Write the structure tokens for this entry.
Amino acid sequence: MHLRHYQSLPSKLSLLAFPSTNFLRRLIPMFNKPENRINTKHFPREKLNYKDFSNAYKLERRNFKNVVFFGIPFKEIDLRELSVQGADFRFASLEGAVLAGLDLTGVNFSGMSLSRCDLRGSILYQSKIFGANLDGALLNSVNLAQANLTNTILSGADLGDANLSKAILVNTNLAWANLNSANLQGANLQGANLYGADLYGANLNKAKTKTANIKAARLPV
């Protein structure tokens, strides 16, 4: 091949490497169409058992977002250095664990025992906690806005200053719970047991409380 043919290659390659503006304008909308987007919902979530988690932790991994934990005994363990947004803890044990101040947005705790857990100041926005046992848990100043707490046991739990706005608390057991100055605006408390609960200073504006049991409860002034 003559030298001039080699000399002409860079200009031709540049046309391939840098498509025309008109070409890109036609290409980008194509990938923005819903039918052409990659659906990440079909990708399997990472699952970790005790051995997997231990090995990852020893290798200084701290990001466990969207992970499904299997059979890991987190009882009485301090988990505050981990990132666990969107994680699924349903198959792990967390009684007495320390999760204070963590961002637990979208975490699935459904049906779990979280009794005596320290969740103070944590973010549980839109988390799934229905049917869980949070008996005696520390939930001071926690963000539970729009969380699903249906059939959850929160008897004796400390929810002082907690944000429970628009939370679903249907048939939830809140007997003797501390809800002092809690924000329950728009919360659904139908069928909830608030016997002996401390609601002093709580915001119950637009909350649904018609069928709730408020006997012996300390009500807002």
Observations:
- Residues 109 and 129 are 5 Å apart (CA to CA).
- The longest helix spans residues 3-17.
